[in-house]
Each structure stands twice: as C-alpha cells, then as structure tokens.
C-alpha cells in the first residue's frame, strides 16, 4: 500500500472541539411516513434478487449495516467530488466544510455490499435514515448501474447527482484542499474524512487519482497552517470519535 502524505498526526492537528448547531431550520425535515414512502418506492424500483449498496466514501469505512458479501464495482458516468457544503457535521458556520458526493462525468471505482435476505423496504428505510434527513436530499438517492467482475447489476447509491442549493460543483483541488485542511465540525474534521476514505480505498486496491493528489495538497496546507513539519514516521493515535458521511 502506498505511503500517504496526509498522516494521522497531521489529521490530529486539524481536530478541535465544536458544538453541534443542530439541523438547519430552512430545510424540510422528513418524518416517519416520508421515510416509509420513499423506501417503498425505491423497493418497487429495485431489481429482483438481493439488495446491493454502492459505497464510494464513508460507507466503505463505516457502513453501519450488516452485509454478507462485498465486491469491487465501477459506476460509469460519475466521479467522486467534494461538493456538498457543510456547516454541520464536519464544518461550522465560522469555517464551512465540504463533503463528498458523486458528480456527473468520468468513472467511480468503489465497493458494493450485498445485504442479507430480508424485507427490502425495511432495509432501505434503515439506509435512508443514515444518509438523508430532509426532503431536499431525496433526489440524490437512486439506483446506479454498476459493473463488477461477475457482470452488471444495480446498486443503491446516495448523494448522487447533487445540484442546486448547498452544493459547490466543479471546484479546483487546491480550493478543496484549503477547505478540508481548516474545516471541523462536532463529529470531526474534513481532513479526517479524507484520510479515512483514501486509506480504505488503498486497502481495497482502489486508486483514485484526484483523491490521492488531494490528500497531498491537504497535507501541505496543514503543515503551512501549523507552521511546522512533522518528522516522517512520527505516529500519534487519532482520538476515537463518531464519524459520518
């Protein structure tokens, strides 16, 4: 596995304690009936057979659901992008952050997870409650055609094709790096999210050229912000904190 420039000790420098500001009141929260209705619609649109979920970011390193099989898979026509504006979770009003979604164009190599046999609407509803909380995000949940070594299938994807309010699309990597090196919210920093994603992709043998360059740029930014370079090989344990996509 390649040696990352963004190290645990650099990530630890980005952490600071932040209070949870709570949900943005200008967004429309989903209620229990909304989740059930959306889960039923997605279940009716699903293929026959098992339920697969496409993971490209935090679902790879913190799925929070039981799976019975995993495979490498590629979603053509999409690519990873830090394009979701965040003033909560891994950002704040004073220092907004960015989170990852799928933007149009290119290809995205990720991992698909097969869920155990069960009632699909209930399984999908649990996934929805992890990933989204407001009506404005519903359109970012969709079935994605993916290619695997065993053939084509469809998997459920989250934060796909985001647009409009709360998004910053097509940003240059140096701009994204500047944000991730500085932003932190009540569950952790943007640098931590990037580190976890890239390191777990590497463990799966998935090499995302843009993310690899991004972690190099974030490492440079963190060193510049803190006015010192850490000795290679120095290891500081990351504090155990809840993490979310």
Quick rundown:
It comes from Mesorhizobium ciceri. The chain is α+β, with helices and mostly antiparallel strands and 245 residues long.
Description:
The structure is a single chain. The protein has 245 residues and is an alpha+beta fold. It has one domain: Roll (Hypothetical upf0131 protein ytfp). 31% of the residues lie in helices and 24% in strands. The chain is built from 7 helices and 7 strands. The chain has a 3-stranded antiparallel beta sheet with strand order 1-3-2. The chain has a two-stranded antiparallel sheet with strand order 4-5. Strand 6 (184-185) and strand 7 (188-189) form a beta hairpin. It is globular.
Number of helices: 7
Number of strands: 7
| Run of helices and strands | HHEHEEHEEHEEHH
Coarse morphology: globular
Count of discrete domains:
1
Mean pLDDT: 92
CATH hierarchy class name: Alpha Beta
What is the CATH-assigned architecture? Roll
Keywords: Lyase
EC number: 4.3.2.7
Organism: Mesorhizobium ciceri
GO cellular component, one term: cytoplasm
């Amino acid at each position: 596995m390649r040696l990352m420039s963004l190290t645990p000790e650099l990530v630890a420098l980005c952490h600071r304690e932040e209070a949870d500001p709570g949900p943005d009141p200008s967004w429309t929260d989903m209620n229990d009936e909304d989740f059930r209705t959306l889960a039923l619609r997605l279940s009716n649109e699903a293929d026959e057979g098992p339920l697969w979920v496409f993971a490209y970011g935090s679902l790879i390193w913190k799925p929070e659901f039981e799976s019975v099989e995993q495979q490498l898979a590629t979603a053509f026509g999409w690519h990873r992008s830090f394009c979701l504006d965040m003033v909560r979770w891994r950002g704040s009003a004073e220092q907004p952050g960015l989170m990852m979604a799928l933007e149009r164009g290119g290809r995205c190599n990720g991992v698909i997870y097969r869920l155990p046999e069960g009632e699909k609407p209930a399984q999908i509803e649990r996934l929805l409650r992890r990933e989204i909380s407001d009506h404005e995000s519903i359109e970012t949940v969709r079935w994605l055609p993916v290619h695997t070594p065993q053939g084509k299938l469809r998997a459920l994807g989250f934060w796909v094709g985001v647009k409009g309010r709360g998004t910053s699309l097509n940003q240059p990597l140096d701009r994204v790096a500047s944000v991730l090196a500085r932003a932190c919210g009540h569950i952790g920093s943007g640098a931590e999210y990037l580190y976890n994603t890239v390191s777990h992709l590497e463990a799966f043998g998935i090499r995302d050229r843009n993310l690899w360059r991004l972690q190099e740029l974030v490492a440079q930014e963190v060193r510049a912000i803190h006015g010192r370079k850490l000795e290679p090989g120095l290891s500081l344990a990351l504090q155990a904190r809840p993490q979310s996509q």
